[in-house]
Design a protein that fits this description.
Blueprint lengths: L1 E5 L3 H14 L4 E5 L2 H5 L8 E5 H6 L1 H6 L4 E5 L12 E4 L4 H15 L11 H4 L6 H11 L4 H8 L3 H15 L4 H10 L9
Parallel strand pairs: 1-2, 1-3, 3-4, 4-5
Amino acid sequence: MDIAVLDSNTLAALGLKHLLQTIMPIAEVELFGSMAELEANQPQRFVHYFVAMNIVLEHRAFFMAHKHKTIVLTTSTDEGRQLHDFNCICTAVPERQLIRAFIALEQHAHAGGKNLPPMATNAQQQPILSDREAEVMVLIVKGYINKQIADQLHIGLSTVVTHRKNIMEKLGVRSVSALTIYAVMHGYVDINKI
């Protein structure tokens, strides 16, 4: 699945690419700094365009013709200042909120994987967490600190730290954001409850 990120802000585009590849590991994400670059690279092959609002406004005819696969990146949280013809995601929000918006968008568009190509065999073999590790992961994703997790599960603080370390190693993640994406994408946590 090919996804285009069209934004003249290179740093923002790189961050978005990383986030998209974490949420949809089968995606091939390509970055473009201008509409001319996109047009020179077979734009029809992309299943989604993630595009900065200023570029959408400058090339509205193209994106209106492809509005079902265009996601507008905006810095405004005011819905009155967003483009109503498109799916919009505000990028000027805390990381946790941005991840939640991307996961919600992915689940809405590709519920149950219905619009996604089949995963490669090796991608389906996810590390398995123990029941206790899954419980700890859910509480981490819900924002609990180690002491609260220990109290809630009636285990020692050092045990929580060990579980946390094991979870991160087994899943190959390094941040709570990546852990949140994993937990939601694999059904451990309902996105509406975090």
